[in-house]
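Sorry, I am new here, but would you mind making up a protein's amino acid sequence and the tokens describing how it folds?
***
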Amino acid sequence: MCSKLVSLLLRHRVAPIDAVCVSTRLLLLLLLLESLFFLVYNSQMEQLKTLGRELAMGSHGQSKEFLDLIKSIGEARSKAEEDRIVLREIETLKRRINDADTPKRKMKEYIIRLLYVEMLGHDASFGYIHAVKMTHDDALLLKRTGYLAVTLFLSDDHDLIILIVNTIQKDLASDNYLVVCAALNAVCRLINEETIPAVLPRVVDLLNHPKDAVRKKAVMALHRFYQKSPSSVSHLLTNFRKRLCDNDPGVMGASLCPLFNLVSDDANSYKDLVVSFVNILKQVAEHRLPKTYDYHQMPAPFIQVKFYLIFG
């Protein structure tokens, strides 16, 4: 149909330029555009249908095998039956996860299945190293899965932490703010007193990042450093004051947590912040924060609670 319309347009190009010719051309052009629109629309609809079928079959997301595992555990009639199912799953994962030819997509699923095993109270330490390796991957989805796993699997004194520090340093300098956020999540959970100096300069730089999500997580990381080793960040405490005046309410709210600790330790040094605290609390009470911070029409209740704790 489109080819016929195009040929008609070309044929009319040599016709005399009169009112009838112009009208005909415009009509043909509109018909052509309408036809093209429906072709593109139908093509997109077919792609959506194909994606839906693939999702239903489990080719995207998790496999049918994993879904069947969750279903069987949910239908277990006793703890003993649940344990038998999980132990069988552990043996399967031990066999498959060490296969050198395992595709990355399948490895991601195996890591998630390991998380599920640990959530049910069983040991999945045989797969920790694979979660660590996944944090090194360049693909965003795999990297974030790896970081999620290691933050849940490991504690800050685990022997494998040393293998993650270099990766965290590199990811904190990434141009992709999602990678930076994933690394900061790991910093808050895994960095200990000995490894704080390795990442501290990069975390301080991220306090001025253009993305508010990054600034918020950087404040949280610096707060964590203060809890772990106050002396290592004693020269950086003014950063919490600066972030109190951040344009984003989320960053401002995150700064209240370290300020609460600092005020609790030495209230006299922070008396000058009372005016700022009152002004912010007034803005909250007057519903001047975005609606996303309201809870059942209560303006930013968690920020209010934190202020009341500080004043108390």
